[in-house]
């Protein structure tokens, strides 16, 4: 009987894991099933572009994995039974021997009332398309308020302002917009925000979202016809509802090889996993974390199943990339532990680097078996041996 590997989620993490496993393991010995709610691979790092009115290339998963041996299932995951080793797909049950959990994240409202009812977001394709439609209906002079001061917030604000110069764009952040960046990067960011006419509300905590704006912690109101909520992400509750060990935030706790610390036949990658980075702190939710987590998990799974040495790698960072519209950007060099350095690239050069990185990430997913030579090895261990209890340190 073939060893059944089920990958849940086809974002950057899940899609890369499935493709890399297909290159590592022999088809005679395994079945790889990739489950995703959308029939296409969605470039989540470009959702601000989609929302602003740009069209993105369609990448059907069935085309991407044709001939690779990966079976694509378009379905919604409703539950995971890690004791029975099954996944519920809305009434249908899918069994596995090894599970890769990569269901990603969704918008976090942090308990702020009115977010779900009145705010748009760019956390996914459908959400970005709804915001796109709303922006298309907006009248000249109306205000679009972006709530949040991080990477997603900055990119959404600048992209919308550039694409819709007839609208008034503002951004409100609890701390300082882009405040973690180096001094040089912050100066360039402020210059870009000024150039695009974006009003900045620093140190402004939003306590409620209403149909015509937001309420701040100071009791004042910021009027806006369109509010875009980009104040963080949270994981889906499916993992927390299972017997998997999860963090307070619901992320699956994994070891250095992306393997669940409580269930050795389960691996987690991407936003859904709580994994330590180079400085011992959790890796942040990002494409920059998702891809190396996927590569490592696939290599660890393949090594265990084929009886080879399990790789040992510490995932670290090198850059933070921010687009400021289509012709401007910031490339902030960081330490492996994600601390900013004084090295920064800005302007068109940074925009080109950011575009190259985004295009490369999409290319790696679109060509799942082309990045490295295929070494499809036969299984050397049984499923039972692969999933024996972990040694806890």
TrEMBL record:
Gene3D superfamilies documented for this protein: 3.50.50.100
Superkingdom per UniProt: Bacteria
Pfam families in alphabetical order: Pyr_redox_2 (PF07992)
Cofactor(s) of this protein: FAD
Entry-linked InterPro entries: FAD/NAD-bd_sf, FAD/NAD-binding_dom, NADH-Q_oxidoreductase
Alphabetical UniProt keywords: FAD, Flavoprotein, Oxidoreductase
FAD/NAD(P)-binding domain ranges (all copies): 4-284
Family: Belongs to the NADH dehydrogenase family.
Name by which UniProt lists this protein: FAD-dependent oxidoreductase
Lineage: Bacteria, Bacillati, Actinomycetota, Actinomycetes, Streptosporangiales
